[in-house]
């Protein structure tokens, strides 16, 4: 395991499909849906079931290894590795493509936005619109 991904989460059994899932998530720049992760895992491991991928994803989410992002009013769930530096994404309402934002606008202002004594552990940001291709359709 490399850079941002520190160690295998305790309490999760190491299996070939799960190792492959983490591998897949490590090597992408944008979050993937369960179906996309499944497709990638299947390239190496033929006899894996979609339900296995779903169940493992939920486990990883519970352990904090993977972050689940529900976007466009929960219509679309995508997953990414929980790295030390977090990302936000803009979603195209036309083709559902996901585009990483260049920076997090919340990071600097958040501490001033909440009352003392409230501990912020995360935040969501939903940006949607149309990508260049969809605008020109
Ligand atoms: Zn688009
Ligand atoms: Zn942020």
Structure explained in plain terms:
The chain is α+β, with helices and mostly antiparallel strands and 137 residues long. It is 32% helix and 18% strand. The strands form two sheets. The chain has a three-stranded antiparallel sheet with strand order 1-3-2. The longest helix has 14 residues, at 50-63. One zinc ion binds at residues 92, 94-95, 97, 130-131, 133-134.
How many beta strands in the DSSP annotation?
Answer: 6
Number of helices: 5
How far is it from the N-terminal to the C-terminal residue, by CA? 42 Å
Strand content: 15-25%
Oligomer: single chain
Compose a concise summary of this entry.
The chain has 137 residues and is an alpha+beta fold. It has 5 helices and 6 strands, in the order H-E-H-H-E-E-E-E-H-E-H.
Please describe the topology of this protein:
Blueprint lengths: L15 H11 L5 E2 H11 L5 H14 L2 E6 L4 E6 L7 E4 L5 E3 L9 H4 L13 E3 L2 H4 L2
Parallel strand pairs: 4-6
Antiparallel strand pairs: 1-3, 2-3, 4-5
Helix pairs in contact: 1-2, 2-3
Search tags:
three-stranded mixed sheet; alpha+beta; 5 helices; 137 residues; 32% helix; 6 strands; three-stranded antiparallel sheet; binds zinc ion
């Amino acid at each position: 395991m490399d850079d941002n991904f520190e160690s295998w989460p305790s309490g999760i059994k190491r299996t070939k499909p799960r190792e492959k899932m983490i591998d897949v998530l490590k090597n992408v720049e944008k979050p993937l849906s369960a179906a996309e992760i499944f497709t990638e895992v299947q390239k190496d491991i033929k006899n894996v079931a979609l339900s296995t991928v779903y169940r493992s994803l939920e486990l990883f989410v519970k352990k904090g290894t993977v972050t689940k992002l529900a976007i466009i009013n929960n219509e679309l769930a995508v997953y990414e590795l929980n790295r030390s530096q977090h990302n936000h994404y803009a979603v195209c309402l036309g083709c559902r493509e996901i585009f990483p934002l260049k920076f997090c606008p919340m990071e600097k202002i958040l501490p001033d936005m909440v009352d003392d004594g409230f501990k912020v552990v995360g935040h969501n940001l939903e940006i949607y619109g149309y990508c260049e291709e969809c605008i020109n359709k």
